[in-house]
Amino acid sequence: MKLLKERAKHGPIPPSHWLLSVASYPRHSQDSDPQRSWYAAHMNICEFLQSVPAAQQMQVRGEDVLTDPDPSLHCIAEWLGLRTDTEALEAMKHPERSPYAGFGPPGARYGNDPFFLSNPALRTVHAASQSLEGPLSWRDDGREFLPRVKRLAQQFGYQ
Description:
The protein is globular. By secondary structure, it is mainly α. Helix content is 42%, strand content 0%.
């Protein structure tokens, strides 16, 4: 939603723009509400994972990695069979060193979050616990999360 607002500062957004497609799932809905696209994307992942053995799956919440990177990255690296020493973990905390920490070649710009690309660095956060209850910050009508979105988010450990 933040990206849509930034883009709108440069003039009207064409109805076919990919940002509107993501924010208004199902496509061409007049109701910009990213929870629908979040739900569709995550249900696709859940359905795909039904065909993947449990031992080959790992659930990671980005908030957990950003709040406390060392234990989270250690756990991920260990599960992948990668090095978990201090030097390896330190390298993981520097995405700005990645060849993908840029806007991309002329024919394939913006393959990543432009807000991240403007300053590609790991930004740890002290995330306050968010609730699945109450009005959504991006809506002006006081609506809350859809019941199916809440159920799926709860399966992922959100409260």
